[in-house]
Amino acid sequence: MKTRIAIAGGGLGGLTLARILHRHGIDAVVYEREAGRSARSQGGSLDLHPESGQQALAEAGLAARFRSEARPEGEEHRILDPTGRTLVHHKPQPGAFSGRPEIDRTALRDLLLDSLPGDAVAWQHRLVAATPRRGGGFGLAFDGGHSADCDVLIGADGARSVVRSLLTDAALSHVATLVELSISDADRRHPDLAELVGPGNLWCVGVNQILAAQRLGDGSIRVGISLPAVDRHLDTYRSKRAVLDMFDGWDPSLTALIEAGDSPPTPRRIEAMPTGTRWTHQPGVTLIGDAAHLMPPVGEGANQAMLDAAELAAELANNPADPDLAICRYEEAMFTRIHPIAEMSARVQAMMLSPTAADDITRFFTSGPTEPAVDPVGV
Question: Is residue 37 exposed (0-12), middle (13-18) or buried (19+ Cβ within 10 Å)?
Answer without folding.
Answer: middle
